[in-house]
Amino acid sequence: MQTTVFQKKAALQDCIQAKKTNSETIGFVPTMGALHQGHIALVKKALYENTYVICSIFVNPTQFNNTDDFAKYPSTITDDIALLKESGCHAVFIPEVTEMYPDKTSSNHYNFGGIENEMEGAFRPGHFDGVATIVAKFFDLVKPDNAYFGEKDFQQLLIVKSLAAQFFPSIDVIGCEIVREKSGLALSSRNKRLSNQGKEYAAHISKALEYGQSLVKTERTPSAIVEKVTQQLSSISAIEVEYVSIVDSNFLKKADVLDIKCNLRIFTACWIEGVRLIDNYPLYPEAQS
Ligand code: AMP
Question: Whose CA is nearest to atom 7 of ligand 1?
Fold first, then answer.
């Protein structure tokens, strides 16, 4: 089976209209490309739950607060299309920037009740306005029944759920578990920018968060765990820690007490070899359904 490649909104819309007339259910997987098995897991879940699956590949300029990060974002379009074809994905939408931003390349401003200001929101000003702006454009265009987002970007998943609840109530936003390498390193397009040595250092990020999970047995407070995990990460000179936070999984508010009932998660953002990596784990995995 071929994966149909669309570059123009109009052609994609015609295809979607035909599928909808045929009562097909549309699954949508937005990505920025440089695809890996984490993305493909989303596509496979979408294929399982829908009759027609569309993936998008678009490096969205408005969600980058750092021009260097945007300029160096990896691009592997030919390999991406081959991977999508192998997965059975029906269509991929690869628009130019001017197709998505015909007037001006800027974001709208959104209110997500405060979750947009925590963690990634605090360290990447404007990032979630950019994410919400492009996801809203895609949701308007594709009008999917279901849209798939990874827990790798857990805060983004909450933002998109809130966006859908406010503006696209007919779209189900479905979260998918993080796919990791054997070393524990969360798969990420940005890993492609790391040297082999850098990837070894990066594996310490997941190890430190797992260490954080183990500390719930001995530590009394979230801040004590945050301190020890930060210390563990900072003990590796190649790792520069931006933040370690333990927050609740619904509102992303800083946790003051350790309580298995509070659905706490531990998050971090770290820099290695000039590449910014993020990861997160549930603090009490045994309490996850
Ligand atoms: P990106 O291309 O990095 O913007 O990611 C596109 C989608 O794939 C987002 O919903 C990500 O959360 C998700 N994703 C990226 N990496 C992983 C991973 N390792 N496991 C699961 N989902 C992922």
Answer: 31
